[in-house]
Amino acid sequence: MAAEAEAAREARAKVIAAEGEQKASRALREASEVIGDSPAALQLRYLQVIFNYFTL
């Protein structure tokens, strides 16, 4: 019975992880669309990355 419960927990953890990956993929796609539509957005993102790198 304990093994079944453990297997069920592991299966649920895999489903949760997959859902998170799916949400992250959608967010990345949306971000790429915004950046692709606006060269200024790309420049701002670049500056943000540089700023974050040097302020660690």
From TrEMBL:
Going by the UniProt record, its keywords in alphabetical order are:
Membrane
PANTHER family under this entry? Answer: BAND 7 PROTEIN-RELATED, PODOCIN
Q: Where in the cell is it found?
A: Membrane
User: Which GO CC terms are listed, alphabetically?
Assistant: plasma membrane
The protein's name is Prohibitin
Whether ATP-binding counts among this entry's keywords is no
**Membrane keyword on record:** yes
Top-level taxon in the UniProt lineage? Eukaryota
The record's principal subcellular location, in a coarse class, is: membrane
